[in-house]
Amino acid sequence: MSPMRGSECVTDGIRVQALPMYMSEESDPEAGTYGFAYEIMIRNETSRHVKLLAHHWIIVDADGNRRDMRGEGVIGRTPGLAPGGEFQYMECCCLATTWGTMEGEFMMEWEDGECIEAKVARFYFTIPEAGGSPDA
To answer: Does 66 map to a domain?
Structure first.
């Protein structure tokens, strides 16, 4: 795996970091399939408990094709985070182009029932030969 440019964002004390990686072993350029992984770290930097309820991802490839993905929790879980707590997970994404972007939000619920959308700042998928992100 080859790491690339990630992102970090804090929303109401919820820090979300994203680290994308190119997975050459999961890619087949001749077939137009490029495999990427991304590691997400969510940290509760508040004094309140919070629970991750759902996610929304926006994935855009180099041709401008957009996919919106919504679902309950992440990786089949709805983790709760105590004050100072962290949750990390890794998932994969396939694109039909050599680069793309991903961003979104996690729907979180505070212990008092109030909900927020913790933002995931845009991060970039690129293959090493592509030479970087489109805004470079």
So the answer is: yes
Q: What is the CATH number of the domain that holds 31?
A: 2.60.40.1470
36-55 residue pLDDT tens: 999 999 999 999 999 999 99
Residue 136 lies in a domain: no
- Kindly give the pairing relationship between strand 80-81 and strand 99-110: unpaired
Parallel, antiparallel, or unpaired: how do β-strands 66-72 and 50-61 relate?
antiparallel
Residue 22 phi/psi, 5-degree rounding, is -85, 135
Buried b / exposed e along 103-123 (16+ C-beta atoms within 10 A): bbbbbbbeeeeeebebbbbbb
Compute the distance between CA of residue 76 and CA of residue 55 in angstroms, rounded to an integer.
11
- Number of structural domains (the chain) is 1
> In this structure, which amino acid lies at residue 71?
G
pTM for the full predicted model: 0.89
DSSP calls for 92-123: EEEESSSEEEEEEEEEEEETTS-EEEEEEEEE
Q: Cα(10)–Cα(95) distance, rounded to whole angstroms?
A: 27
What gap in Å lies between CA 21 and CA 1, rounded to an integer?
6
